[in-house]
Specification:
mainly alpha, about 80% helix, globular
Length: about 300
Amino acid sequence: MDYYQLLLLGAIAGFTIFLGLPLAIFQNISARKKGFLNAFAIGILIFLIIDVFSHAWEPTEESASDAFNGKSLLGTAAINLLAMFGGIGIGLLGLTFYESKFMKRKTNLSLQGIPGAQKGGIYKDIPQNKTQQQQQQQQSMLLQQNSAYKIAMMIAIGIGTHNFSEGLAIGQSYVSGAIPLAILLIVGFAAHNATEGFGIAGPLTGLHKRPNIRFIILLGLIGGGPTFIGTIIGSLWASTVASILFLSIAGGALIYVSLLMYNSGRLQTTNTVLMAGIFVGLVAGFITDLMISVGGA
């Protein structure tokens, strides 16, 4: 396998995420089914959190143990620990800052265009009570749509950081000479990313206004594109610290997104449906990972 084939396969591994994204255009979905799909996405994200942190903590713990036993330098362990905990902080607090500074601002700007969303915006030619009811319904639908769009975007960002670390793994396997491993990782990650597409699309199902194709494509590029970018960067050099850092950033981001989706899910459906969906999503994640392991990766 030459370098250009690696890049092509790395792109394919990332963009299989588009296989799950068409779920977002489905509109005739009941609140119960929508809640289940949302919970299914949460289950996938929880699995990714477990998977990401297990891969990030293993080399971090090993370096700390080696330093304690005098087998390696203390500075190496300190750097790995800093990358681990610093990455979690960047992923978790970084998305918090991004949402508070940018996502809420966009929501407020959207509301300014709705009659009645601001004080005094009532039509004079229609009875006041009817106008207010129409405005409340319109405002409620817009808030629901903005919330769904925001959650989908945050999921795509969180999954994108995770997929960047996957791309690093593919590239570093290639540069280290482990070509069979790189191929198996590509196949495994391609299958995994298809399920991640469902996770991104989950909050967008059943909206009053169907998401446009441009927004869905944007979500796919944000969620799947980093696999290709990570493949390029990972193929340039191998770095344990970089791997730990980006894995922990991904883990922190996924925690934030999962909690955001959970809060939304509690408002959409019963706790029983929510937990059932999370369970199915977790099982799907573990089975996909098991398929990769059985394949030898």
